[in-house]
Amino acid sequence: MVRAVDGEPAGLNMDYVNLPAESGRTGAENKGSNAAPAPGQKLLRLVGVSFGLLCILQAGLNVSLRLTLFKSDTQPSPTETMCRNETDKQRQLIGHYIQRGWLYFHTSLYYISVNTTTWQESREFCLQHEADLVIINTKEEQDFTRQFHRLTWLGLKTIEPRKWKWVDGTWLTESYWGPGEPNGFEGKKENCVEIRFFDLENSWNDIPCEDQNFWICEKNVVL
């Protein structure tokens, strides 16, 4: 609207009145690029950010869970740790005896003497070294003990006539007596057993316990 002021011609002094914005043009278009986003756009952005954070949280949780499971798989249980420690001790024990001239075969350590004594003195030596005179439990052990080609005491002795018992208290069930043994040769009191017939699988012989022989000590170890 245009109006004249103080009688001056129209068009010389005018007051300008703001008119409504043209139809079809929004406030955002009039204000250009600095216009604030619409409420709907804010909501979409908020949902997008929340979803991204949720994905990051889920990924972190998965990594943490996998690390926990990996640690539980790789770290031994208390029982496994105890067994490993016991095995290490047994290996150290075996190494200690081997350094002192003992032999390891299957699940036992063996000491083959270099001098001769009576059956009882031989056993006392073994007991002093936390072992005992050898007990034959298998054919493999029988073959092992006769390969040294020495007259050696076994941990076998008769308690009653014809009843033989090992030093661990068990009765003899499987034997490797030589031909015609045991026989109490010439009426002697032959209550102890030696390895005599080296070239035969059945190598045992009964002799008096007071005789002088080499001996074999045995110490059981289990890995």
Automatic annotation (TrEMBL):
InterPro entries, per the entry: C-type_lectin-like (IPR001304), C-type_lectin-like/link_sf (IPR016186), C-type_lectin/snaclec_domain (IPR050111), C-type_lectin_CS (IPR018378), CD209-like_CTLD (IPR033989), CTDL_fold (IPR016187)
Domain C-type lectin: 105-218
One GO MF term: carbohydrate binding
Keywords for this protein: Disulfide bond, Lectin
PROSITE patterns documented for this protein: C_TYPE_LECTIN_1, C_TYPE_LECTIN_2
Keyword Disulfide bond in record: yes
SUPFAM superfamilies reported in the protein's UniProt record: C-type lectin-like
Protein known as: C-type lectin domain-containing protein
